[in-house]
Write a structure and sequence with these properties.
single chain; Glutaredoxin; Glutathione S-transferase Yfyf (Class Pi), Chain A, domain 2; 2 domains; 55% helix
């Protein structure tokens, strides 16, 4: 049986769980999930480090395939298990999705991560509120680029849901929750109407609500 290592509150584990759900794969039936990371530990044990020397989650074991890096795991799952064509599409659609997956990882998340970790993982006495606000406002700017794309199409890569939408939407969800929870510290959240409509579409048409957090997991 496929095995997924990682706690449900991890954004990168949520990417994998959402993808598995869209592919119709069920926890306990098609794959086993093992809590790891933060309060669960395990990720720094010798056994885990043999699988993932980074000591991070998620890690996926599927027979003799062992993968880390969440976006790579999504690519693998879509290639290996998308029998029903949930993520099918022509080459243009596929690589538009790939483009946004790389953008999420290399451009947008580094900015949002500063605000997210600063407000949810850093003790209050140690927080750099200037850096947090600056990072959040930069995320506003970056998400404006996605909003411009969604003004012309329903999803990040066209008019069909793709893995790129998974990785983007989980970040956008945290961007929204950060402002809802810490409005003074983040500063204003940009009103991006096309992103708002896209998020509503995902809530109604995909497994988003089964996977995404409804409130921030704040480590005290």
């Amino acid at each position: 049986m496929m095995r997924l290592w990682g706690r449900k509150s991890s954004i990168n584990v949520q990417k994998v769980l959402w993808c598995l759900a869209e592919l119709g794969l069920k926890e306990g039936k098609d794959f086993e999930r093992i809590d790891a990371g933060l309060q669960f530990g395990i990720n720094n044990t010798p056994e885990f480090l043999k699988l993932n020397p980074n000591g991070l989650v998620p890690t996926l074991e599927d027979s003799d395939v062992v993968l880390w890096e969440s976006n790579t795991i999504l690519r693998y799952l879509a290639h290996q298990y998308d029998k029903a064509g949930r993520f099918s599409g022509d080459i243009k659609t596929q690589y538009e999705s790939e483009k946004w997956m790389d953008w999420q990882l290399g451009t947008m998340w580094p900015a949002l991560r500063i605000a997210f970790l600063g407000l949810t993982r850093t003790p209050e006495s140690e927080r750099n509120y200037q850096a947090i606000s600056k990072a959040y406002q930069e995320t506003n700017r970056l998400l404006g680029l996605l909003d411009q794309t969604l003004a012309k199409q329903n999803y990040c890569s066209g008019n069909q849901f793709q893995t790129g939408d998974i990785v983007l939407a989980l970040c956008v969800s945290r961007w929204m929750m950060l402002h809802n929870t810490f409005p003074e510290q983040t500063g204003e959240r940009a009103n991006l109407e096309h992103i708002n409509a896209w998020m509503k579409r995902l809530e109604e048409e995909t497994c988003f609500n089964e996977i995404a957090e409804k409130e921030l997991n704040i480590v005290k």
